[in-house]
Amino acid sequence: MAIVTAQDVSRVFPMPAGPVTALRDVSMTIAAGEYVAITGPSGCGKSTLLHLLGGVDTPTAGAVTFEGRDLVSMSEADRGRLRLTRIGFVFQRFFLLPMLTAAENVELPQAEAGVAAAPRRDRTRELLAYVGLSDRADHLPSQLSGGEMQRAAIARALANRPALVLADEPTGELDESTSDHIADLFDRVNADGTALLVVTHNPALAARATRRLAMSSGRFIG
Amino acid sequence: MTALNLAWRTVRRYRAQTLLAITGVAVIGALLFDMLLLSRGLLVSFADLLDRAGYDIRIVSGGGMTLRLPIPRSAEIARAVAALPEVDRVVSLRMMTAALHVNGQPRAANVTLVGVSDVGAGLWTIVRGADLPDRANDASCPLVVGPQLAETFGLSPGSDVLVNAEESGVASALPPVTCRVVGIGQFAFAVPGNDDVATTLAAFHRSSGEAMSGDADLILVASRDTAGPARAAAAIQRLRPGASVYSNEDVVEQFNRSGFAYFRQISIVLSALTMVFAFLLVATLLTVSVNQRLGEIAALRAIGIGRRRIAAMLMWESALLVGVGGLLALPLGEALALGLDHILRQMPGLPEQLHFFVFERRALVIHLGLLIATAFAAAAYPMWLTARMPIAATLRREVVD
């Protein structure tokens, strides 16, 4: 069953020097439980496609549907709600809130989704144990290493039991060994039933995916 | 994790920025608070001064409040007014400049001689000696003098002085009258550098050489609590249709329109300016803070944290900065007001009890109201910035940067 589908999507950015086409008539589908990696040079449109599939941006042309719902015609509030409950995001720069502890960062999307305090705390404990950060729950991001921050960010992405996790260069700021640990964690997340789309320059990480796509100049090339 | 909790954590995290904002708001808020105290302080103090003597209505001659002329048949008017059911008590006053000669002193003291028809009228408080006698015999001239005059000229109860009443600037050929100091009193309307001396109305007329008509240039009336000044003033007007009758409220209103309008205008202009400064300070710091956190905020929006929660967080950040600064502004403003009041009261010709800065609950409520409005206004632009933020473009820019 398809979770997200992009049909002939294009994305053109208006720039002072003239419009820049980041995506050209791209189509793709991610099925439930699938693990997809997209690779390609910088500026080839990988992140743009990830943003369109995740509903944080809308295409200039084409359609994106998530679990059968048209993301383009949806209001921003509805897209926000969908992102909160059905999609998890992992960023290259982690983007944890620096004034909250690891546990509080994981609790935040659950609180936004209206999860009551007790189940929220239980879920947070469970997730931090899942990513191996039980003993760092009360640490601020500034007290965590890069790998620990990314693990906390993955726990945050999984907080509301999403159907799809979108990871944009998740190992871009990490060394090789730490990247391998993050890749192992993604394997586990996918094995536990969550679909994954990873946009990466890291061949070792891309190799873990069950489907690998390469992009160049806003199109899939293989 | 409420928006307030997130805001609290944020202001604690960016300590230097928070300290700067709170200090700025405290200083600006202190000025705002002072301007609010100044806008009505003189008026409130003046009204308090008028009420302090316990009289709430004044009857003057046709010359109005400023030009003091004797009221024809004032004794008769005073008696008729005192008989009104709306009136509690009445006192007639006559004032004139006078020269006071003290034995052994090389020069005379220039004083304001006040003749009163009724002792214990509440216009002064005896601090030493006795009050004017209830019924002064015709030959006597009892005096109550101010403490400053008593100290300068070595006067005490029992001291004899010579009094020459004279219209201001007009030399008098009348022989001086011998008077005796019976008490030292603190005058309610005392003006620094201007000494008041009180005596009976009869003694006043004798020393000024005026006919014993009992004419006064001011009749003070205290209304009964059950009637109030408005009803009592109306009753007096009915009794004497041509009389110039003013309640204390009328006097305050008249001064509000003329003399005090200047202070009010200055304070309104300065209040508006301080509000603008507070707004600019907090809005700038919040905008800078939001710009520093664009990546974080875009990521929050991406993971589904609603615009409303982010806007509420920024609103609370603004409220915390302005709120804490605004609270600190109160003691700071009060201290500043004390200092400024002391400086302004050095101006010549002002009654001792008159203040420029007077604390009122009204000023406090307006101060808090204006600060709340400032907090909202200052948060508006950063809130708009985050609400309109293009999430994908911001995330891309953050990574590229």
Architecture overview:
The complex is a heterodimer of chains A (222) and B (401). By secondary structure, chain A is an alpha/beta fold. Chain A has one domain (2-220): Rossmann fold (3-Layer(aba) Sandwich). Chain A has helices at 46-53, 76-86, 102-112, 117-130, 146-157, 176-191, 203-207; strands at 2-13, 20-31, 35-39, 61-66, 69-70, 87-90, 164-168, 195-199, 211-216, 219-220. In chain A, a hairpin with a 6-residue loop joins strand 1 and strand 2. Chain B has 2 domains: 3-50 and 259-400, no CATH class; 70-216, no CATH class. In chain B, 53% of the residues lie in helices and 18% in strands. In chain B, strands 2-3-8-5-7-6 form a 6-stranded mixed beta barrel. The longest helix of chain B is centred in the N-terminal third of the chain and has 38 residues, at 15-52. The two termini of chain B are 30 Å apart. Chains A and B meet through helix 1, helix 2, strand 6 and helix 3 of A and helix 1, helix 9 and helix 12 of B.
Q: Secondary-structure map with pairings?
A:
The complex is a heterodimer of chains A (222) and B (401).
Chain A lengths: L1 E12 L6 E12 L3 E5 L6 H8 L7 E6 L2 E2 L5 H11 E4 L11 H11 L4 H14 L15 H12 L6 E5 L7 H16 L3 E5 L3 H5 L3 E6 L2 E2 L2
Chain B lengths: L2 H11 L1 H38 L4 E4 L13 H9 L4 E16 L6 E8 L7 E6 L12 E4 L1 H7 L6 E6 L11 E11 L7 E6 H8 L9 E6 L4 H12 L4 E4 H10 L3 H32 L1 H9 L4 H38 L16 H27 L3 H10 L1
Parallel strand pairs in B: 3-8, 5-7
Antiparallel strand pairs in B: 1-9, 1-10, 2-3, 2-6, 2-9, 4-7, 5-8, 6-7
Helix pairs in contact in B: 1-10, 2-7, 2-8, 2-10, 2-11, 8-10, 8-11, 9-12, 10-11
